[in-house]
Amino acid sequence: MGVNFFGIKLRSKESINKQFKVAEFADGTPISLLIRVVSGLKEGPLISMLGAQHGDEYNGIVAINRLLDQLDPEELSGTIIAIPLSNPLAFYTDECMAPPSMGYRRLNMNTVWPGDREGLLTQRIVSAIWENIIIQSDYIIDFHDGGRIIICRYILAEHLKETDRQVVDQIKKLYTLFGQGVPVQFLDHSGHHQRMGALTRLGSLSIQAGLIGIPCIMAEMGGGLRIWEEHVQTAVQGAKNIMIGLGMLQEEPVGHDKEQIVAKESAWLRSKHGGILYNNCELNEIVEKKASLGVIKDIAGRSIEEIFAPYKSILTDVRYQPKVHSGDWLYWCGKIE
Predict the structure, then answer these.
(1) What predicted TM-score, i.e. pTM, was given to this entire model?
(2) Is omega for the bond preceding 114 within 30 degrees of 0, making it cis?
(3) According to CATH, what is the number of the domain 4-245?
(4) DSSP state of 111
(5) Could you count the other beta carbons within 10 Å of the beta carbon of residue 292?
(6) Which residues make beta-bridge pairs with 105?
């Protein structure tokens, strides 16, 4: 099938579940990635899937493993190469990013793509994934969730003018195939003007893959340091819907009759004051402009700040952890035209 990774040439009807060394700890202990592969009977696309680029995000790990456990090479056209746990350094410490004690600097994995084989520890791991898996992919699904403090349900489709010339139509195709009424944050980072930190987003997997002509979407499902069965099911079915739409599986898609809202403008709402957040809203709720989303109270129970929707919005992220400091993320509002 012409697919090689970490020195292995894939054959048709092959399944692989193997650890591959990508670096070492200070005492020489290997740092490895578990790579799972299902290679189908017939030729077809190669989809790479990543979970847990951030070490406090667990739902993608479960979704990837459940999906691959369901795949039969005899019934599959093409190949799935998946890394359930992409960032073992952060996972070991139950943090979004690895601490400086694991590699000198605290780096967010999803801001340093395509990595550097001669760089810092996180950059070397990223480079190994990029060189062995990403660059030969036809499509990428990058699974995330809200981590420690946020619960989310949406697809993030990032793009630039430079990527639009190559992959924007394919990105739209991926999130449409994912379906199930899952809303989309379809964000243009050209000009570094987005509110969620576009300067760092330029180092995300989705942007860097797009620059070399590979469409990538981020499926953001769950959060709050727990496994959500409904979000895992949505992630698995969304990936299967994509595979069905690409001709890799001969099944019927699920949830394409549900409306999918696509927001091209968004706002992250943050706290001005520290305190306890009381939510007045639900995940994926559609709210009107100036609707009250939540109230921050001090530790004596007195209201000190109320949070309002900036425009008619769909809520793609809702804070799960009630304790907030000044400047903490609370809600991500996707503008409804």
Answers:
(1) 0.95
(2) yes
(3) 3.40.630.10
(4) G
(5) 12
(6) none
Over 50: is that where the pLDDT of 146 sits?
yes
Q: How many CA atoms lie within 13 A of 233 on its CB side?
A: 6
* CA distance to 27, 95, 187, 252, 337, per residue, from 293 (Å): 49, 28, 23, 38, 19
Residues 6+ apart with CB under 8 A from 218: 142, 143, 144, 155, 156, 157, 158, 204, 205, 206
Q: Find where tokens 């921050």 sit.
A: 296
Token output for 17: 């579940």
Q: What pLDDT, on the 0 to 100 scale, is given for residue 138? A: 98
Percentage of residues in the chain having pLDDT higher than 90? 85
For the chain, the structural domain boundaries read 4-245, 265-335
What's the average model confidence in pLDDT over 310-317?
A: 98
- With a cut of 60, say whether residue 302 has pLDDT above it: yes
Residue 82 in contact with residue 69, Cβ under 8 Å?
A: no
Write down the pLDDT at residue 304.
Answer: 98
Question: Tell me: the pLDDT tens digits for 93-139?
Answer: 989 999 888 877 889 999 999 999 999 999 999 999 999 999 999 99
Q: Which fold has domain 265-335?
A: OB fold (Dihydrolipoamide Acetyltransferase, E2P) (2.40.50)
* pLDDT (0 to 100) of residue 107: 92
